[in-house]
Design a protein that fits this description.
Elements lengths: L2 H9 L10 E3 L2 E5 L6 E5 L4 E2 L1 H14 L1
Antiparallel strand pairs: 1-2, 2-3, 3-4
Length: 64
């Protein structure tokens, strides 16, 4: 585990305040109302795609 991942887990946003589900341009997702992170959402599972959660967060952090 990278030290940045550990620090982000301890001190970062825990994404407990999520928006409703949005579908825009064929993409379905939820947004953290605290930090703005976007999470792809599966309508079939009615849950956030956990397999893609890590990839989406890393893309967001690398862009910042």
């Amino acid at each position: 585990m990278k030290i940045t991942t550990l620090l982000n887990f301890v001190f970062g946003c825990h994404h407990s305040n999520l928006s409703r589900v949005f579908t825009i341009r064929r993409r379905t997702y939820r947004v953290c109302c605290d930090c703005g992170a976007e999470f792809d959402y599966s309508i079939e599972k009615m849950a956030i795609n956990r397999s893609e959660l890590h990839v989406v967060e890393e893309m967001r952090h690398s862009a910042a």
